[in-house]
Amino acid sequence: MDRLRLATVWLGGCSGCHMSFLDLDEYLITLAEVADIVYCPIIDAKEYPRDVDVALVEGAVANEENREMLLRVRERTKFLIAFGDCAGAGNVTAMRNPLGDPESVLARSYVDTAEPPSSPPVAAGIVPILLPRVLPIHRVVNVDLFLQGCPPSAPRIRNVLEQIVAGRRPPFDDMVVRFG
Ligand code: SF4
What is the CA(1)–ligand 1 centre distance, in A? Predict the structure, then answer.
């Protein structure tokens, strides 16, 4: 049987979903018997590879880097999972949206609430170019599965991965919602 090519991707999120992935503990050893993790924030892979079977995408789309990365991930991935509520609904990452356009957001962060007031480091490339609004990932690409939670618990992540490894497809159970 071909080994599963699994990726995890970190867009505009707090990394809490990835912490939950690491909470899989000994199941990660079991997973390693049938799957290769070909891209992940904690492995040394600079480029998102081609022919990825499954990707867990954490975080919303907050800036141009996120958007470009997500388009690349979608193009190169068979089965894309919105991993957590920021990816699926904007959630915490989208809390900036009521502040208005990117200029207002940066002014709020670096001038209005900073002590002493600073200036947004956008020109230096330290902060990527913000999108006008934070978007859940299904507003940018098609999503195959939404794994809800902030973060999704390790047992729920395991449940989905076990069923994918077993060759099943959604709907898996009442904890996972399928859209589209
Ligand atoms: Fe963090 Fe929750 Fe967003 Fe996951 S869903 S990135 S844990 S805020």
Answer: 34
